[in-house]
Specification:
TIM Barrel, single chain, about 15% strand, eight-stranded parallel sheet, alpha/beta
Length: about 350
């Protein structure tokens, strides 16, 4: 069952998706890795709890990231893999990748834009053995990334995360496709998997090695993971279900809001980044929809595509408010299956359940 990912081996075919701001840090990532999966730290403003974050957000986040990667590795005890999710759209993308690699992270997963720089950044830290993986939503994107990586660095992805239209947070689909998916007519994840695997086939042949693909976004359980694995996936990525665990880095207030959420509470939002996203329809989201949300009064410059003070709200402030359980002012990203998450558990219980369902479905 072990999956080879670059120089590393993953004993369970389970990835925990990166969730920012502050939802998946060292505690959650380390706990998932300790069970044999891949735990993922989100690099997005991960130093927001540092005392100097207000005056030096970049320095605070990089310092916190280094510490969190090292702590997660300690918690993992060598059992699984610790990864970071680094968004291309963030202003400190390159520095975050370098920091994580120097801290000894096992993998860098990168999306919210095409991570065309990623292999060159990794080459700057030659002592790193980290696996590199793009997040894609189409075969076209996967093929383009492989072409650029091969041309510039003679390297291809060690694995790929295929994120479908039912995922939480930022989506790699058009607003129309996101709304269609929310209405119950999503693009088939099976079809996307076939598309991506076909796009990767020439590169697998050229480099004479596999490029494992993990499906993400709307994968309900281990039985569905088994079905996608029969179709060629190496495993699956789960995120929202890990929020309602004792080890999750979110506040208890955030966890309770997710536990109380129903499927009908989920909507598609327009992020200040310019991408559609899936979140709970909180009072903040309603105010934005109605044009009654005050524009942000300050900006820390966290996102490159953001129009800063012209945006309807500051996404960093909204995500930090959500982490703190502030229902009125928070942006609560979540996957389409949030309504099925109704009981607090542990990471171990979640992963055991997924694997039990997987074995029963084989």
């Amino acid at each position: 069952m072990a999956v080879r990912l670059g120089r590393h081996s993953l004993s369970l075919p389970i990835l925990q998706g990166g969730m920012g701001i502050g939802i998946s840090l060292d505690r959650l990532a380390g706990a998932v890795a300790a069970k044999g999966g891949m735990g993922t730290i989100s690099t997005a403003a991960c130093g927001f709890q540092e005392p100097d974050y207000g005056r030096d957000p970049s320095g605070a986040s990089l310092r916190a990231l280094d510490r969190q990667v090292r702590r997660a590795k300690e918690l993992a005890k060598g059992a699984g893999m610790v990864a970071v999710n680094a968004m291309v759209a963030t202003a400190q993308y390159a520095d975050s990748v370098r920091t994580a690699l120097r801290a000894g992270v096992d993998a860098v997963v990168s999306g919210a834009g095409l991570p065309l720089q990623l292999p060159a950044l990794a080459a700057e830290v030659p002592e790193s053995t980290a696996a590199l993986a793009p997040i894609v939503s189409s075969g076209k994107a996967a093929a383009l990334i492989c072409k650029v990586w091969d041309k510039r660095c003679r390297r291809i992805p060690d694995f790929v995360v295929l994120e479908g239209p039912l995922a939480g947070g930022h989506l790699g689909f058009s607003p129309e496709e996101a709304v269609q998916a929310q209405a119950g007519r999503p693009v088939s994840l099976s079809r996307l998997l076939q598309d991506v695997r076909e796009a990767l086939a020439p590169w697998r042949e050229r480099y004479r090695r596999d490029i494992p693909v993990f499906v993400a976004g709307g994968v309900e359980d281990g039985a569905q993971m088994a079905r996608y694995m029969e179709e060629g996936a190496a495993g699956a990525q789960f995120a929202t279900r890990f929020i309602a665990t004792e080890e999750c880095d979110a506040s208890e207030g955030y966890k309770q809001i997710l536990l109380n959420a129903q499927t009908e509470d989920v909507t598609i939002v327009k992020s200040p980044v310019g991408m559609p996203g899936r979140a709970l329809r909180s009072p903040l989201v309603r105010r934005v929809e109605e044009g009654g949300q005050p524009r942000p009064s300050k900006c820390v410059g966290c996102l490159v595509p953001c129009k800063k003070l012209e945006s309807p709200y500051c996404i960093s402030q909204a995500l930090i408010a959500a982490w703190d359980g502030d229902w009125e002012n928070g942006l609560f990203f979540c996957g389409s299956n949030v309504g099925q998450v109704d009981t607090m558990s542990t990471v171990g219980e979640q992963m055991d359940q997924i694997m039990t369902e997987w074995r029963a479905a084989r």
